[in-house]
Amino acid sequence: MEEFALTRSGSVQVIRRVHPVIEEAGDQASYRFLEFFAASIRNAGTRTMYLHAVHEFLDWCDTMGFKLQSISSLAVSVYVETLDGYSPSTIMLRLSALKKLFDYLVTGGVLSVNPAAAVLLLLLPKNSKVELCPQ
């Protein structure tokens, strides 16, 4: 999919390519992904931070072998635990970005449930060992 550009007050902001995890889920998922960033986030700074957070999460999902439809709340919880060392506000921002994106994908019919909805900050105890196997 091509890069998507937004114009606002005469400036152009380029949103990176749709992430492969999203693209593999089909045209509707790709469209809703782009629409989420273009239409639902008005602040350019928030849009940039959310885009970065979402791409990092999707890179992790890709490395772990998850497809969009197989991402679970457990997977999101384990990802949050990989953010150990980041400030709580940074972790909350990243989790917020995921929750809002997944909500948008649910309302658009791409996903049936939001896998990040039930995830709380620091949900798993430190040093816990959880192994994930994509289904």
Rg result: 15 Å
| Oligomeric category | single chain
Order of helices and strands: EEHHHHH
- Largest sheet entry: 2 strands, antiparallel
Strand content: 5-15%
Strand order in space, largest sheet = 1-2
| Number of helices, where a helix is a run of at least 4 consecutive DSSP H or I residues | 5
Helix content: 40-55%
Calculate the terminal CA-CA distance, rounded to whole Å: 26 Å
Q: Please tally the β strands and state the result.
A: 2
The residue-averaged pLDDT reads 83
Global outline = globular
**Secondary structure category:** mainly alpha
Spans where pLDDT lies below 50 across 5 or more residues? 6-12
Q: Please, could you describe this protein's structure?
A:
β1 and β2 (11-15) form a beta hairpin. It is globular, with a radius of gyration of 15 Å. It has a two-stranded antiparallel ribbon with strand order 1-2. The chain has helices spanning 20-23, 27-39, 44-64, 73-82, 88-107; strands at 4-8, 11-15. It is 50% helix and 7% strand. The protein has 135 residues and is mainly alpha-helical. α3 crosses α5 (88-107). It is built from 5 helices and 2 strands, in the order ββααααα.
Entry summary:
With 135 residues, this protein is mostly helical. 50% of the residues lie in helices and 7% in strands.
